[in-house]
Design a protein that fits this description.
Number of strands: 12
Structural class: alpha+beta
Helix content: 40-55%
Distance between the termini: 37 Å
Shape: globular
Strand content: 15-25%
Order of helices and strands: HEEEHEEEHEEHHHHHEEEHEH
Length: 295
């Protein structure tokens, strides 16, 4: 699916690959990152997808001129490749936006979060749904106001095609976000997903196109790459045989470099650096490593 969309959009689509039984699938989340966050280009991509797939669901969170929104700078397009198949989500966004929302940090020993999962889909959602004590005791209004101010700077950088260092923003918000997390009633906290990830059992068809497949494992504490391998598929190889070998290596990586202090993946990407740009959860965690976990 990643490769099919890349051909439709004439733009690299990056996403993970997985094996179920003897069959390969794309994990149902792919991303396109624009050098400049241009609404006209987004509209063009959505129009191409609608022409190719017919009925699609578009979740527009671009909001380039609306500083009151807490989710901005991205458009999600949900595709259904075939009846009965899992939906596939294509996100159209930019590197600064993803870095801000998905750079990981420690909420408590052994628990990682990011702003999209912990704040936007977690704390803010609970406050909106009527958890008033959380809003008052956790100082959520102040956190969200701080978030909106940071996000406004991120959006401006994305629109102008500029780089943006999210680390100072995240470190500034970290302690208050942890405090709000601790104040969430435990039964509610158990139901939340502090990381904005898509489960790997949400799968879509995989196209055996002769692109690059990347293996990557990183240490989230120091940000160092612990393993990387880039394979350029070619017409002379047994495609499924190569991907089977890469899957075995990926599984070994998962055992050797387990979460939460490591991250590992097998994905369609032109380079390791680009994979880390599109999925910032592979980069070094922001802030300190909380006691209780070995680094």
């Amino acid at each position: 699916m990643h490769d099919r969309l890349a051909e439709i959009l004439d733009e690299e689509v990056i996403g993970e690959v997985t094996q179920v039984g003897n069959v390969f699938f794309d994990v149902g989340l792919g991303r396109v990152c624009l050098d400049r966050l241009d609404p006209r280009r987004v509209e063009d991509y959505v129009a191409r997808l609608r022409k190719a797939f017919g009925a699609i669901d578009v979740e527009d969170h671009l909001h380039l001129t609306d500083p009151d929104e807490i989710v901005r700078g991205m458009v999600g397009v949900t595709l259904r490749p075939a009846p009965g198949r899992s939906p596939y989500l294509l996100q159209i966004t930019s590197r600064p936006v993803l870095a801000y929302y998905e750079q990981r940090f420690m909420l408590e020993p052994g628990v990682l979060g990011d702003l999209m999962g912990t704040l936007c889909n977690g704390v803010a959602h609970l406050v909106r749904s009527g958890e008033a004590p959380l809003g008052i005791l956790g100082g959520c209004d102040g956190i969200l106001e701080q978030h909106r101010n940071h996000l406004d700077a991120v959006i401006k950088a994305a629109v102008n095609g500029e780089a943006y260092d999210v680390q100072p923003d995240l470190e500034q918000m970290l302690e208050r976000t942890r405090e709000a997390w601790r104040l969430i009633p435990f039964p509610l906290r158990q139901k939340l997903r502090p990381l904005s990830t898509v489960k790997t059992d949400r799968i879509a068809p995989h196209d055996p196109v002769l692109r690059r497949t990347v293996l990557l494992a990183t240490n989230l504490v120091d940000g160092k790459i612990t393993y990387q391998y880039i394979h350029q598929h070619n017409p002379l190889e047994e495609y499924e045989q190569v991907l089977t070998w890469m899957t075995e290596v990926h599984q070994a990586m998962m055992r050797t470099y387990p979460p939460p202090l490591f991250a590992a993946a097998m994905a369609r990407a032109s380079s390791v650096e680009r994979l880390m740009d599109y999925f910032p959860g592979f980069r070094r965690i922001a802030g300190d490593v909380l006691e209780g976990e070995d680094a």
